[in-house]
Amino acid sequence: MGDVLFYHLTQSSLEEALPQMLERAQDRGWRVVVRAASAADLTALDTHLWTYDAASFLPHGMEDGAAQPIYLTTGT
Predict the structure, then answer these.
(1) pLDDT attached to residue 65
(2) Angle between helices 14-27 and 39-51 (to 10 degrees)
(3) In whole angstroms, what is the distance from residue 66 CA to residue 24 CA?
(4) Sequence-distant (≥ 6) Cβ neighbours of residue 63 within 8 angstroms
(5) Helix (H) or strand (E) holding 72
(6) Of 29, 44, 50, 63, whose Cβ has the fewest other Cβ atoms within 10 Å?
């Protein structure tokens, strides 16, 4: 079984910290699951990951069953 890492935000917002953490994970070849509290939060995260930086791309998918390096879900 792989490692499970948690990150507690204390000084930056989710919108600031998440893309940076996901870029680092992608550089390491890690697969990531991002769990949102609601469908609305999930949609907001999806939009943010597409638009946070015009020069960057974070390949990700939502609850459509596709295998993605970054998987956004509301599930467990």
Answers:
(1) 61
(2) 70
(3) 22
(4) 42, 72, 73, 74, 75
(5) strand 70-73
(6) 29
User: Beta partners for 29?
Assistant: none
Amino acid (1-letter code) at residue 41: D
- What pLDDT does 1 receive? 65
Cut 0.70: pTM above it: yes
Amino acid found at 68: Q
Look up residue 21 and give its two tokens: 């953490």
Cβ proximity of 24 and 34 under 8 Å: no
- Residue 37 phi, psi dihedral angles, 5° rounding: -75, -30
Kindly give the confidence (pLDDT) of every residue in the chain, 76 residues in length, as a single tens digit, with 9 standing for 90 and above. 677 778 788 899 988 999 999 999 999 999 898 999 999 999 999 999 988 898 888 889 887 666 789 999 998 7
| Separation of alpha carbons 23 and 27, rounded Å | 6
